[in-house]
Amino acid sequence: MDPLVTFCLRMGDTALILGQQTAAWCGHAPVLEEDIAFANMGLDLIGQTQLWYEIAAEAEGKGRTPDDLAFFRTERQFLNAQLVERPNVDFAHALMRQYLFDAWHLPMQEALCESGHEPIRGLAQKSVKEVRYHIDRSRDLIVRLGDGSEESRAKMQGALDALWPYAADLMATDEVEKTLAEQGVLPDLHRVRRAFDAETAATLERATLAIPENGHARTGGRSGIHTETMGYILAEMQSVPRSYPDARW
């Protein structure tokens, strides 16, 4: 697959699956404010997905639409990071998953604002304001709950312990990123890792949460290797368009 198509699918798939997971809290969040906030973040992510899929579809040149990419690919064809497909165990897990994603997503979008590829640069410049809002909100909640009651801290530490190994998949790189960097499409992505490390170290210290010292890095999602949860997510997300493939609004 063309490196540009692969990269755009990785970005779009990651945003889409997190958007789907986030939207699942609509009507189920513990307080109304969070219910609305999670729904809005999900919409932001799905809007970004549309843009990534448009670039991928045009570069691919096979006549596929963003809807085709979202609803008519199989599990192994999705290239999202494994972190975003982790289940909605409880609200602590949802918040920690969102924060770890945001801690990577903001420096990635800021780096892509310098891309030599005009559509990607334009996408990043358009979405980076949304991403800044997302991390401001998730960072605040991580600190408030981590440095809150004994119970809230225990829940947040448990979520961090469970999800931290999967953060590695967000920053995994291979020949795709190397090739695009040589072409000027991507800037140096080492800065994204450094920014992620600095952000999480500072925020988790304020939240009195300890970064796990052990734990095997969970990677593979960006190559189509997923956890057991992914199949259930796609079954729910794709059920209507697969049942009625010719339906139109």
UniProtKB/TrEMBL annotation:
Keywords: Oxidoreductase. Gene3D superfamilies: 1.20.1260.10. Its EC number is 1.14.13.149. One of its GO terms (molecular function) is phenylacetyl-CoA 1,2-epoxidase activity. The keyword Oxidoreductase applies. One of its GO terms (biological process) is phenylacetate catabolic process. The keyword Oxidoreductase applies. Pfam families: PaaA_PaaC (PF05138). GO terms for cellular component: cytosol. It comes from the Bacteria. This is Phenylacetate-CoA oxygenase subunit PaaC. It comes from Limimaricola litoreus. The gene is paaC.
